[in-house]
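Tokens help. Our protein:
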Amino acid sequence: MREISTYIDIDASPGLVWEVLTDFARYPDWNPYIREVTGEIQVGATLALRTQPAKGRPVNFKARVTAVAEGIELRWAGGLPIPGLFGGDHGFALNPHNGGTRVIQDERFSGLLVPVMSSIIDRTLENFERMNRPLKEWAEAKASAGAGR
């Protein structure tokens, strides 16, 4: 198993950041990495995702929602069709921090192929960081406009 994690501090409430993270229809407006998500935000639901890595072609995959705690946590898990080869458990944790929100984005990779997927995992961390910056900008702009307060 291998885990990657990154965080960003956002000057907006956890509730407002949650609104941005769960408004999948708006992802193309601000999210350079996860370009499209469709599906319901409820445990057990299947999401269809399309990512656009900084280096490489778009990747389409399905994931199952594994945790939903409004304003606190969202997690989904997906992987290769053959169980045990390669999978990921991706999450967002929203923690109150200095009057705003610290968003921790992480993924736990598991399976036989993890050792040979090291460079892909490293690039995934870079793409999470690419996503964090515009998430901060989008949420802070909404907070400045008075939305979600």
About this structure: Strands lie at 2-10, 34-38, 46-51, 59-69, 73-79, 87-97, 100-110. The two ends are 40 Å apart (CA to CA). The domain at 2-21+66-144 is CATH 3.30.530.20 (Alpha-D-Glucose-1,6-Bisphosphate; Chain A, domain 4). The helical segments are 14-22, 27-30, 118-144.
